[in-house]
Amino acid sequence: MAHTELNNLVDFLKKVPFFSEVDKTSLLQLCKDAQTEEYDKNDCIIEKGAIGDGMYVILDGEVKVHDQNHLYSTLVPKDCFGEYALIDEEPRSASVTALKDTSVLKIQPKSFVDLIAVDRGFTKGVLSVLIRRHRELDIIQESLAVSKKQIELSNSKMMGLIDGAMDAIIMFDTNFKIVLANTSANAILENEDVIKRNVLFFLDEESADILETLVRSHQDGKNDGMNTYLPSEVKVIGSNETETLNEGTISTYGTGNDMFYTLILRNINDRVLAERKISSLTNQTKYLEEEIKQLTNDYGIIAQDRTMAKVLDLVEQVASTEATVLIQGETGTGKELVARAIHNASDRSEKPLIRINCGAIPANLIESELFGHEKGAFTGATTSRKGRFLLADKGTIFLDEIGELPLDLQPKLLRIIQEGEFDPVGSSETLKVDVRIIAATHRDLLEFSKTGKFREDLYYRLNVFPIVVPALKDRGDDVCLIADRMVKQFSKKMNKYIEPLSKDQKQLFMEYDWPGNVRELQNLIERAIIVSTNGKVNWQSIIPLTPSGGSTEESTESNRILTSKEMVEIEKENILKALRQTQWKISGENGAAALLQLRPTTLTSKIKALGIVRPV
To answer: What are the φ and ψ backbone dihedral angles of 241, each rounded to 5 degrees?
Structure first.
């Protein structure tokens, strides 16, 4: 903008009520960062509900302030609108439309705030108008009776600017008597009637000393043109004894008896609490990461056996890609640990890994858990909630027991995999997410899909990179290595010495089938350490009875008559086999009772009579 044009603009702004007390030097700086905009007749300048992006000064033309067909006012050259955008980012409460071809000067909030921060004259000029209105209102009304309406409008605008500020603004005179306090100031002072009261009475002793020292120093000429940050935090004590910590600035304008000070305070209680919470959560996160790391290193992936070593090779191959992974394996084999290993070795390791067990959440709640919901979307939805997919954005989501996902939600999951988008429950807004999906199941999903309980197209989308985690019984010596490590960990945790596993004891671990896999092994060893005495564990009584592979002696005694006790043991083992094969399901078409051709009630009675207990 040319120099002459800038000077003309400054002269114009001096005639605008909002800037009438600002000196030309400050206005010149403001104009350098401002820009002129042209609008044709009927153009919308501000739309109701939009976030304000600046203050507008009408240079030429005419506008109306309205809400649809309801007219609030019309504005002409030298009028301003959009002032609230200088102090907040709230939606605008009305629309502004050009009634004719209109030219405006747009002032950016950042330029305004930056100028206030560095230009004492600018701050003094804006605020002095309001102070003068308060102190000389009668004189102004008498001498400018004809302009009363314009004065009230100007005063209202400036009061709105001050009262709308989130920071507390307190103006006081040379005797520390408050002459103006905005709504935020009344809130922290816990008093609606603070005018003419001593501002120092609302501060603790240390803060009062700081403020008084600054003001007295300025009055003695040691701090001319004071416009500075307060050297330390200020503690305000409200009328109801509520204490708040604040940071702030103090500035001054005027001379002699017309000297006034502006104290701007920002409540930092919430920030301090937030910082403490963040610190606590950070420490907690580090702790949990260490726990997970320890769990993974100790129990999850001890892989000397080639079957599990192959799984780790697959993890390394797929981790650096974005491929969807389907982990299959029996319950308790450590599928979640494999998922964590993939995430930790991926480029998303710094982002969250969000886990959800699709089989552990009621069907009527799982959609909300996965995709989130809007307030009022269903009974009990009193607030909006982010779903797990949104929490996992830029990270990884682990869908455990994916086979239990309700059929009606599967198309929504398919849409996320294909398009990376979804709609929260009760919302028409489509959200985009960047999430890597790792799913796990103990089911044969392809066979499951043939029964109509799982979408075949979803299965193929999930099965881009399958990983099968072997059962513990198929991992050879790994069971003994894991058992050794667990014994050391639990004995250390419980501060109990336990003798290392002997060769014969390890054989017991090798001979048992471990239907509950690593999870059963972990629970069994923890129980063993608890009941141990003098460093010894009776592993034969801890590990469930496993029938031998058949000795030569038994094969040669096929004609031997079995005792009643032996018959009971055989029946017990036969029932155990059926229960393991059906994953301890008793009733139904695929239950143990059907395999044994018994009534479920009869089988239940036998289980109780034989003392059969499902491994934990």
So the answer is: 75, 15
What CA–CA distance (Å, rounded) separates 557 from 352?
62
Q: Going by C-beta distance under 8 Å and a sequence separation of 6 or more, which residues neighbour residue 150?
A: 17
The per-residue pLDDT for 463 is 93
The three-state (H, E, C) secondary structure of 499-555, written as one string: CCCCHHHHHHHHHCCCCCHHHHHHHHHHHHHHHCECCECCHHHHCCCCCCCCCHHHH
Alpha-carbon torsion (86, 96, 144, 141), positive or negative: negative
- Burial bucket for residue 589 (CB in 10 Å: 0-12, 13-18, 19+): exposed
**Mean pLDDT of the region 509-522:** 89
Alpha-carbon distance of 245 to 545, in angstroms, equals 67
What is Dmax (Cα atoms) for the chain? 128
Q: Is-contact 115 29, C-beta < 8 A?
A: yes
d(CA 449, CA 616): 30
pLDDT of residue 275: 76
Interacting residues of 398 by C-beta distance below 8 A, sequence separation 6+ = 336, 339, 340, 343, 353, 354, 355, 356, 438, 439, 440
Q: Do strands 80-81 and 55-60 pair parallel, antiparallel, or not at all (unpaired)?
A: antiparallel
For residue 614, give both structure tokens. 């499902």
**pLDDT band, residue 77 (cuts 50/70/90):** very high
Cβ count near 367 (within 10 Å): 21
pLDDT tier at 504, thresholds 50, 70, 90: confident
- The whole-angstrom separation of Cα 314 and Cα 307 is 11
- The model's pTM is 0.45
Q: Are the beta carbons of 59 and 119 closer than 8 angstroms?
A: no
Element of type H or E holding 357: strand 353-357
Single out the residue of 203, 199, 200, 250 nearest to residue 223, CA to CA.
Answer: 250
- 483, 525 in Cβ contact below 8 A? yes
Q: Which of 500, 498, 521, 496 is nearest to 510 (CA)?
A: 521
Distances (CA, A) of 473 to 241, 303, 338, 477, 510: 68, 13, 18, 9, 8
- Whether residue 165 contacts residue 123, with contact meaning beta carbons closer than 8 Å, is answered with no
Amino acid at 420: G
**Is residue 479 within 8 Å of 516, Cβ to Cβ?**
no
Name, in order, each residue with C-beta under 8 angstroms of 582's C-beta and a sequence gap of 6 or more.
Answer: 590, 591, 592, 595
- Say if residues 371 and 406 touch (Cβ distance below 8 Å): no
Number of H helices, E strands in the chain: 24, 21
- Rounded Cα gap, residues 354 and 389, in angstroms: 8
- Roughly how many angstroms between the first and final C-alpha of the chain, as a whole number? 80
DSSP state of 424: -
Closest-CA residue to 532 (of 503, 497, 481):
497
The conformation of residue 568, written as its DSSP 8-state character, comes to H
Quote the CA–CA distance of 366 and 388 in Å, as a whole number: 10
Alpha-carbon separation of residue 98 from 18, 531, 566 (angstroms): 21, 85, 99
Residues contacting residue 33 through CB under 8 Å, at least 6 positions apart: 107, 108, 111
pLDDT tens figures, 228-282: 788 888 899 999 999 889 988 888 877 766 788 989 998 888 777 777 777 656 6
Which value, in Å, is the radius of gyration of the alpha carbons in the chain? Answer: 38
- β-strand partners of 262: 171, 251
Task: Please report the pLDDT score of residue 383 as a whole number.
Answer: 75
